[in-house]
Amino acid sequence: MTEKKIPVLTDFVGTPGGPPPAAPPLVVTAEELAELQARIAAEGYALMERLLHESLREMEANLFADVIGRLRTELPSLVDDLLQEHFGPGTGHR
Fold first, then answer.
1. DSSP reduced 3-state for 13
2. Is residue 6 one of the residues assigned to a domain?
């Protein structure tokens, strides 16, 4: 990294009543810009990947709960229907 002057509070306060001095222009080298772009891209990708994984886990949990709920609801009727079909009417809990 290149050596930069770090601004301090007195650089911006100035004298009382007078306009504050203009901030020095920010100078960024092409290497620093490329490094910043690469870091932003990497951090953005990591964030996207984390959010996608969290979303997939939530969707999986919701689907699992839906399937278990449907199984609890439909399985007793299925068992009853199959028992009646196999053994004849009057079997089961209807």
1. helix
2. no
What is the per-residue pLDDT across 48-84, written as a single tens digit (0 to 9) for each?
999 999 999 999 999 999 999 999 999 999 999 999 9
Domain containing 65: what range?
Answer: 25-87
66 close to 54: Cβ distance less than 8 angstroms? no
DSSP 5: P
Tally the domains of the chain: 1
DSSP letter at 42 equals H
**Of how many residues is the chain composed?**
94
Question: In whole angstroms, what is the distance from residue 60 CA to residue 47 CA?
Answer: 20
pLDDT tens-place string over residues 40-52: 999 999 999 999 9
